[in-house]
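haha ok so turns out i had the wrong file open the whole time. this is the CORRECT one, sorry everyone. sequence first:
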Amino acid sequence: MKASKQHPPAPDIVLFDWHATLADTMDAMYYALDEVLPRIEELGLVERLVPEGQSKTPEDAKLVRYAREHARLHPKIKAQRKISRTDIFEVLFGPDEEAKAIAHREFDRHYERFFGPVKPLEPEARERLAELRALGLRLGVLSNRKRQFTAHELYTIDASGWHELFDTVVCGDDVARRKPHPDLILKALADLRAQADAHCWYVGDSTTDVVAAKEAGVTAVFYNGAGWDAAWLRKIFPRSARFPHAPDLVIRNLQALVEIAKETRAAAHGTAARGTRARA
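then structure:
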């Protein structure tokens, strides 16, 4: 799906989700999930799965049903490797915050066995981030995972690390509530001494990223690196009373993000310059 022509206000700050937006950690994530889901009965989570008839989509209902019956992900979900761990837990447990907290803790325990070498999701991601910094933007990276994992990946990606590219890094154990709550975004903005408004763009690959951005009051940019088609995007962002949140912008890659950031900032600066001349 191409980026919308209705662009949001120009960014001053761009915050990024880390996993499956900037970094490719899907293998380690799914290996850990393979160990977590067989333990959901032992963890007391089977009874806390979303009840029949309460899922957002028929596909979500099938995912929950399969997990309830088999205590694992459907092979098709694992083969596609498109859905984030956070979105999977949202689908499985819905608004049950305690159940999700238990699942996240168990995931962290198993992820420790598999995380390590990490590569960029896009080969030229570092160059695109450098272009954004060259525009004068401040950048941040956010992750629902523990700082222990994210820091290691951030400092070792591309062999030399990307830590110098970001002005703030906020992780799941830095805040009281993980995404889809807005706490990670609000903590990043507090670190930068900035307010939450449309001039902060939050870029992420999951529905929970979009919900977190909208709850924080910033521009939600959905990174569609998985290549979902327009029909599927309408399904996962139905704009209904129960699921009202939808992205302000959809991009397929970081190059599109850079181009739109340049375009909106040039337009904003041009408007400001014209206003100055008019007042003179």
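The domain at 13-24+117-279 is CATH 3.40.50.1000 (Rossmann fold).
again sry for the mixup
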